[in-house]
Amino acid sequence: MSTAIPIAVAHNRYRSTLPSGENAAVEQEIAALRTRGHEVTAFVCSSDELIASGRLGQLRAAMRLTPGRARLAELRDQLAASRAQVLHVHNPWPMWTLGIFSAARAAGLATVMTLHNHRLFATNTRLLGPAGARRPRDAAERAELALMAASHGGRVVDWCYRQALSRAWRGGLLANDVQAFLTFTAFQRDTAIRAGLPADRVVVVPSRVPDLGLVSDLPGESLLFAGRLTADKGFDVVIKAWSKHRLPPLTVIGNGPLAAAALNVPGITLRGLVPAIEARELMRSARALVVGSTVYEPGSLVTIEALAGGTPVVVPDLGSFSGEFAARGVGWAYAPGDAEALAVAVRRAWDEAPARRGRCRALYEERHLPVRALERLEQIYANLLAGQPAGAGLSAGAGLSAGAGLSVGAGLPA
Questions:
Q1: For the domain 223-363+402-408, what is the CATH code?
Q2: DSSP code of residue 309
Q3: Is it true that the peptide bond before 92 is cis, omega within 30 degrees of 0?
Q4: Where are the alpha helices (DSSP H) in 86-185?
Q5: How far apart are CA 315 and CA 336, in angstroms?
Q6: How far apart are CA 364 and CA 350, in angstroms?
Q7: pTM for this predicted structure
Q8: Would you call 359 helix, strand, or coil by DSSP?
Q9: Cβ contact 98:75 at 8 Å
Q10: From CA 157, how far away is CA 54, in angstroms rounded?
Q11: How far is it, in rounded angstroms, from Cα 366 to Cα 361?
């Protein structure tokens, strides 16, 4: 894109004790936009600042999740001083809040929000939508709430978020002040629209990661698990599968509370946290990546990193995972949380993975190269500045619609 756009990017970094792929993705996007000639003003703060303020400071921040007039005026002045034409928000909580969108519209900026999680649609115990917050009506909605995993901390903090989010929905802030919501997958887009976001404002911009280079010619001597070693990432299911079955070797990179439980499990080798360059090489040389998540993941960067290195994926048949990897036969699905089904899928992956490396790389180059996502993002910015709908002129693109067709593990219909 030849026309440079002044952009304000707002993001509240998660605290440094919890490494976040989202933080890294935002940093990479800011750098990439600047490389392409855009003038980016980064409004970035850290939750470390809030932690340092102590419990009283944290409670005060929670009580200010719906900003007053003075805070809105302060935000408006900050945005106006940046001379940006577009505000792109990633994580607004808790320091920026959704009020930054109202301030941006008052300052005349176009507004965009990337949905990195499901916090707009759920709190610990409530679903959210145009009518505000409500309890799940039935077992299906209770299950959906659990899969969204939109935790906001303890009861008091959760109550504060619920009030702020309810006001934003009921008052029309999300419908009026946010002109484009960006999702990583078609499944995530459908979830956002079901929750009540305007369909013409929700646009898919696929996850992207830097190019890892050449695909390995070797079949790979170990499977790989990469991520937090927690139950929501399904690592307990991984431990159970390897404990009960004689499965191919699994290298594990990452850390978490379940690390100790895997210490003496046959076939599992714990590497802990490793430097990024080593992690990339382990990913590229793995026979397949094992993903265990038991909740919705809007944009699983680790799976895209696997595709970039030509590494197929074993994924739960859940949410975006099913549709994202269906079209090109780049993985094997299993029933989420089912150790027996995971074992079956892993054995299939071990036998079939070497023949699928080329497909993985092709899918990455087609959908997940950074330049493709950036071009799509630039078009969205240009559309909004021209007074057009965010998705005007954007084709759905190959693989942007949900589908089926993964090789299926035990317990799932073929």
A1: 3.40.50.2000
A2: T
A3: no
A4: 99-106, 139-148, 155-170, 173-176
A5: 8
A6: 21
A7: 0.90
A8: helix
A9: no
A10: 14
A11: 9
Measured N-to-C along each axis, helices 370-385 and 21-35 cross at an angle, to the nearest 10 degrees, of 70
CB 126 within 8 A of CB 117: no
pLDDT band at residue 411, thresholds of 50, 70 and 90? very low
- Strand, coil or helix: what is 180? strand
Q: Is 340 exposed, middle or buried (0-12, 13-18, 19+ CB in 10 A)?
A: middle
Whether residue 412 has pLDDT greater than 60: no
How far is the C-alpha of 195 from the C-alpha of 181, rounded, in Å? 13
| Overall CATH class of domain 6-208+369-385 | alpha beta
Residues comprising the chain, all counted = 414
6-208+369-385 and 223-363+402-408, same CATH topology:
yes
Encode pLDDT of 311-352 as tens digits: 999 999 998 887 777 556 899 999 999 999 999 999 999 999
Q: Give the C-alpha separation, 215 to 405, whole Å.
A: 24
Residue type, 348: R
What are the extents of the domains in the chain? 6-208+369-385, 223-363+402-408
Q: Which two tokens stand for residue 125?
A: 């115990």
